[in-house]
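Table S5 (text form). Sequence records supplied for joint modeling of the two-component complex.
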Amino acid sequence: MARIIIVDDSATMRQQVRRALEPTGLDIAEAVDGQDGLEKIIADAGIDVVILDVNMPRMNGIELAEELAKNGRIEGGLKIVMLTTEGHADLIQRAKAAGAKGWLVKPFKPDMLLATVEKLAA
Amino acid sequence: MEQRDQQQLREIQSEIQSVLGETESATLSLGDRLNEIVQGAEEFVAEIRGEIGELEGGEGGSVGTVLHQQCEAVEGFISQVQGAVEAQDGVADEVLSTSRTVMEAAQAVASISMQSRILCFNTMVEAGRLGEKGRPFMVIAGEMRELSDRIAASNEQVSQLARDLMPLLKDVKRTIADLRGGTEEFAQRYDVERKSIEGITEQLRDTAHRSLAVGDEKIAAIVERSSKALVDLQVQDLVSQRLKRILRLTGVAAEGGEFLSESLDEGDAAAADDATGLEAGDVMLF
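The corresponding structure-token record, covering 408 residues in total, follows.
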């Protein structure tokens, strides 16, 4: 079964993302910042989708995406969806270059997030 | 910045952090409650739909179908009983008719037997007049009389049997007539009951559908409002996150670092970058 990890420093945001993705029936994990996310993703080869915030303490989402690209996880099929308030073109470009598959702007609509993840997980 | 000012600033920061922590807890709790409301509403609708499904056609068929099948079974039974009653009545009529024929035949035999006796008597009288020559005729007449007596006795038994059978057959006919009347009355009452059952089933189905439609509309409104509230919750959380960031940067500045105002650019969905044109809720797939 596909597994998802939500990487966001906001507990409320993780709660709402989890709720939005529950209908997928997929296993959902959480990480509280970029560094925590990196460690959990590296430790768990079963994670297929990452919902990733940009602005976080210790390591931001763009840096995390770039780290995952460096160690070959994205090439190995890991799909990243950025979920952020950011809309800067250069940040979007960096995420895209690292191999992210999508960019969603907060506050998000649960059905849009669900549809995006279902499309990527299929 | 003087040491006293720095101390005051740290205290203010600590207070703000505490408030933000409480806000986050409250936001999480509110999120949980709203999730429960939405989930409860969705489960309620699913449950109601399930009940309606049972009414319309579950695994064992709908309530209407089951009632209809039961009605068909009862009607089949009534029809069988009516057929059996008619068949019994026909048999009883045939036995009655045969008994009457037997009685008529017995009367005819009795008449012939009487004539035979008279004939024997006359033969014996004539044989007596002939004396010795008439003796053989006397013997024959005697045998004939004995035979005639036996026939009469046997005929009487048959007649008696037929006579005894007549009241019994009349009783059978009465019972059959009662059964026919009872069956017809049951069929008529059952027809009324059936129409009543069908009416109640139809009313039940209509009421359930109307209730579901009204409930659906209200639940949809609740879900929509709750979903909007969940988005508002996200906005509230984003503001809290932005305040936390300001606090962090203020702390850096208080410690003698540089306050970089550009670090605060993110965090406001309404201020999303013009170059990309992305707005809150937008999705861009690569």
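Note: Chain B has three helices and one strand.
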